[in-house]
Amino acid sequence: MPLCDDNTMEQLVAALQSNDAGELQLVDDQLKKFPEDPRLHFMRGSLLAARKQPVAAHAALCRAVELAPDYHIARYQLGFFELTSGEVDAALATWGPLHRLPEQHYLRIFIEGMIHLVRDEFEPAIARFEEGMRQNDENEPLNADIRLLKAECEKLAMKAGHGGDTEDEAGLSATSLLLGGFSGRDTKH
C-alpha cells in the first residue's frame, strides 16, 4: 500500500502543531492520494475529535486501526476516545492488544491508569500516570494530556479523602465528568 512520504507527513505535523485553520483540508487532500495510509486517518480522527465531530472522528480512528492494527498510538487514542465517550467496554476491547506491549511501555501503563480511574481508584491511577510519563520519552504531547488528567485526579482524590462527595446532582461519578471533559480535547499525537 502506498504511503504518504515522510517530508509531506512532517509538513502536515507542522500544520497541525501550528493550528492552521486549513489543517483538515490538508489531511483530506493527502487522503485522496493515499487512502490506505493509517497515519492520515489517525490525524484526521484527531482533528475531528478536537472539532467535536465524534461520529466522523470515531470512523477515522477506527480506519487507522483497521489498516494498521499494530499502530499503537492510534489504538490507544481510539480507546481513549471511546472511554471519554462513555464506552468503557469498547475502550477495553480496543486496548486489549496493547496489553501485549512490554510491562514498562508507557501506553500500557497509561491504560492501567485509565482502568483505575474508571473504578474511581484515584491514587493507583495517579501512580500509573506518573510512571507512564517517566517511561514516555517519545510523545511529549501525550504526557501533557496525562499531566492534565493527573492533576484532575489529584483534585478528586483530595475531595474523596476529605469526605467530599464525588458525585454531582445528576448521579454521575466524578470520573465520568472528568473523562467527559477530555472527550473534545485537542489530542494530536
* Computed Rg: 17 Å
Structural shape: globular
Span between N and C termini?
23 Å
How many extended strands?
Answer: 0
Characterize the biggest β-sheet.
none
Structural class: mainly alpha
- The total tally of domains equals 2
User: What does the average pLDDT come to?
Assistant: 86
Put simply, the count of helices is 10
Low-confidence stretches: 164-172, 184-188
Helix and strand pattern: HHHHHHHHHH
Helical residues, percent: 55-70%
Report the portion of residues in β strands: under 5%
Looking at this protein, list some descriptive labels.
single chain, 189 residues, mainly alpha, Serine Threonine Protein Phosphatase 5, Tetratricopeptide repeat, 10 helices, 68% helix, globular, disordered C terminus
Folded structure, characterized:
With 189 residues, the protein is mostly helical. It has 2 domains: 69 residues, Serine Threonine Protein Phosphatase 5, Tetratricopeptide repeat (Alpha Horseshoe); 94 residues, no CATH class. It is built from 10 helices and no strands.
